[in-house]
Amino acid sequence: MGARVVYLDNAATSWPKPPCVAEAMAAFLRDSGGNPGRSGHRLSVAAGRVVAEAREAAARALGLSDPLRLAFTANATAALNVGIAGLAGPGDRIVVDAMAHNACARPLSEAARRGAEIDWAPVDGAGRLDLDLLEDLVAGRRGPGGGPGRGARVGRKAARLVVLTHGSNVSGALQDLAAVATIAELAGAVLLVDAAQTAGLEDIGLDSLPGAVVAFTGHKAMLGPGGTGGLAFGTGVDPEACAPLLRGGTGSASESEEHPAFMPDRFEAGTLNGPGLAGLLSGLSWIEASGRAELRAAELRLTERLAAGLRELPGVQVLGPRPGERRCPVLSIRAGLIDPASLALALDERHGVLCRVGLHCAPRAHRSLGTFPGGAVRLSPGPFLSDDDIDYALGAVEACLKEGTSP
Ligand SMILES: Cc1ncc(COP(=O)(O)O)c(C=O)c1O
After folding, report:
1. For the residues 159-164, what does the mean pLDDT come to?
2. What pLDDT, on the 0 to 100 scale, is given for residue 407?
């Protein structure tokens, strides 16, 4: 392998982080390493201040004006588990899109075992939802699997919960969040948004989506470290109607053996990840200083450049939205009969181009795209790449296809 590394796996976790992130984490451990929200001494107060600032920054990133409606969790998976278990119960209908990550699909399988009814909303070959179909399904006018015909009254109850993959981690399809929120609201359902791929980069505008609850992660587009994420409640959803999964010490109401009902302590049992939240705060501050819209535009431009170059390579099929369509900076490819795992390995070992191969924890998404069970090679640009990096990666794919991928 040459010395050059082009990291195209930002959908798994963003890398590199802005240099200030590691510095902020080290500074937290060195200078304010008390337990946030526990003791009254200066180091605990300093740590608590970092957590409060991280909460404010994360809320701003989601367009939520009340930071106390946001609770930190270990990652998006933890937040989605809380939302799925807490916002619907046995006998409730839950509608979820067919691009869902296993972070949604597996808790939903558990919800089904406990008596919830799960309906999968189909997507097209690029991973986009048909909103008319979704509307019928959410309202109970359509049975699972698409029948009976659109608009037919089948007398099913409306969904209690709609789970939406905002941005697909496989095809990069970006769903129309406002439209889905309206569909959920009309049916009286809560909308749980899996914003793992979008929070930090896209405008979520949670203040304008009162019926939505957003699960986010800190280690992808928010540019923070692993071990950070959270759940944020729109103003129309009462967090107290969502049961926590963990109960324990919060530093508040210590006289009681009952877990506090109030936010954010309701979902923050146990010591928070102080160093991680210091890093998240730093990543979010870097995004604010750089301009979220500018970063998004730059990453989307790189993604379109990559997609356009890949489409020109013989035998390469680019999965996902067409040029200029709504998307996030993620795409996947198939290259004829070439085994995706061999292609990814050759890209890494021969060219230093790092990407992710396989089913990307989203088997149903691959079924929808026609790439199950073989999977695909995913390439996901980030904020520190240049046009030259993208052209280098394109040259590497071309070379691997010409040379063949066997060692
Ligand atoms: C769409 C989607 N949802 C959920 C997750 C889970 O995120 P986390 O690693 O923060 O638990 C991921 C991560 O790959 C993802 O891409």
Report:
1. 98
2. 62
